[in-house]
Write a sequence for this structure.
């Protein structure tokens, strides 16, 4: 039986894990939270939406609608769970983020071919044979695997001009504020 190691329990990792398991693969799913978190995640949940709970437009013939339709036809499990977690949002598909994560976690828990490892993967072994590795660690991959990657797009204000920063709470009324600021100069070390 094919062994697959999937690193990352955000959105891409669980989708890959569930699809691979449904095809008969033995899956080892690695997620570093809660042992180590990122600058943006707030929970240890699988499929945490780190920002907006909107999966964008459901208006026919828009690009986000087309992408979701293609994913539905391809059998996306996470999109099915998003549909099942939908909350009213006009022409968009928005989800109850807690319910969405809960449903995805339940799907993973009910799949005996998936073994969960709550640990940070700190190295990849290119010589390793027999196991396919899917790297699904997203934009906030831990420094051990991506020492030169970009950092969270929620920086301090110091390297930025702030003539009119846009401040907004993205999660809920009492959540942390994010500041969107125009960039004038490239900060030192910017990649
Ligand atoms: C601040 C912020 C705001 C964003 N806002 C939006 C938005 O509004 N809309 C939008 O579409 N996208 C937004 N994004 C992008 C968003 O992150 C992606 O759309 C989505 O989360 C990508 O899914 P993913 O599975 O690739 O990565 P993630 O959902 O980030 O999942 C990656 C997982 O890998 C884990 N991981 C990382 N390194 C390791 C390691 N070494 N070992 C084990 N586990 C590891 C992480 O803990 C995480 O759970 C935002 C990103 C950030 C940082």
């Amino acid at each position: 039986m094919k062994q697959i190691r999937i690193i990352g329990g955000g959105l891409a990792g669980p989708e890959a894990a569930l699809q691979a398991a449904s095809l008969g693969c033995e899956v080892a799913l690695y997620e570093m939270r809660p042992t180590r978190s990122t600058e943006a995640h707030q929970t240890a949940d699988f499929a945490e939406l780190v920002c907006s709970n909107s999966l964008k437009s459901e208006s026919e013939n828009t690009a986000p609608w087309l992408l979701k339709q293609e994913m539905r036809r391809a059998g996306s499990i996470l999109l099915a769970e998003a549909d099942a977690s939908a909350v009213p949002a006009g022409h968009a598909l928005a989800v109850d983020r807690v319910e969405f994560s809960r449903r995805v976690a339940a799907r993973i828990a009910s799949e005996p071919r998936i073994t969960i490892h709550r640990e940070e993967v700190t190295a990849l072994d290119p010589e390793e044979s027999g196991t396919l590795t899917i790297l699904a660690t997203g934009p906030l991959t831990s420094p051990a695997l991506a020492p030169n990657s970009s950092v969270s797009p929620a920086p301090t204000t110091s390297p930025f001009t702030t003539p009119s920063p846009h401040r907004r709470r993205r999660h809920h009324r009492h959540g942390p504020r994010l500041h969107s600021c125009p960039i004038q100069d490239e900060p030192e070390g910017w990649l």
User: Anything to note?
Assistant: The chain has two domains: 3-152, 153-191.
